[in-house]
Amino acid sequence: MLQEKEFLKQKAKQLLLSILSIYTPSGNEKNAESFFINVSKEFNLPLKITKSNSYFLSPGGKILLAPHVDTVPGFIEPHIENDIVFGRGAVDDKGPLIAMLLATWIALENGKKVSFIALSDEENKSAGARELLNEGINFEHIIVGEPTNTKNVVTEYRGLMHLDIICKAKSEHSSSATQNIIIDMSRKINEISLLPSTYDKPSIVPTIIRSGEYMNVTPSDAYLHLDVRYPYNTDKSNILSPIYEQFKDCEIKIIESVDPVKVSVNSPAVKAVMKGLIKQGIKPSIVRKAGTSDMNILKNITQSIVTYGPGDSKLEHTELEKITLDEIYIGIQTYLNAIEELC
Fold first, then answer.
1. Is-annotated flag, keyword Zinc (predicted)?
2. Residues comprising the binding site?
3. Least buried of 208, 218, 271, 323, by fewest C-beta within 10 Å?
4. Quick one: 112 and 226 in the same domain?
């Protein structure tokens, strides 16, 4: 058992350092093509590269392990110190990806029907997950790979709306201006904004505002972007009504909308992952996340879905991304135990 653990940790280190050396911000997932071709050959796993540049290994299983290959921008040179691996994506999401990849390989060697897909574009608009959904492929169970502090099991994510708002006004010389679209828009923003407070309350957060070209001329237009998050069982119209009322003379476009997701703690996938942790002497915790993930999309394939992965979620998207080989090993064993439960 000790030899097996050490072998898996060393294999995880090799693969993780390799994929961390490949820069794959959203839209650049094709950069990882050679990595997955090599993995496909080494592990003798059929590979399908999709139109969205997602990487589908061993399609055909009833259980799907689904991490994502893209990262946020900002390359961090990968390195290792005392079994701690550093680099962009070490936590989100290449650490979980390698744990899932090795678990898939071992499970298939043991005769289990499992598939793996490294999804594209999760950090943007989930093009990979949407593509998979539109393909109409059926899976009985899906485990989404995201860092959940190695012991947490995620059953709920909030929903998301991205709004673009464009307002128009009369442009005037600043020395004699009778109105100002910047001041007007600022008042409106103050009226409708809701900073994140608790999970159960929606948030409306302005993230981009642009207006003006000249130092001595009031702007003729202004652009505002709102990031809206809301929990399960929330009526979206109650969130949108005050926004439409405040900006009734402006153009408003919902450029992206992702419904929230909530699955039962008694769903087979949730119970399997929890048992997978308990078998290792780890007490799991059910948690809900304030953001969104590919689980919001893939829940339309099956309700037996859950999110779990190794890594400290507080390090996501930071310059300090790191993950230990022990965390990855726990992730591998959790996935293998869960697959065993589901087969």
1. yes
2. 68, 92, 123, 146, 317
3. 208
4. no
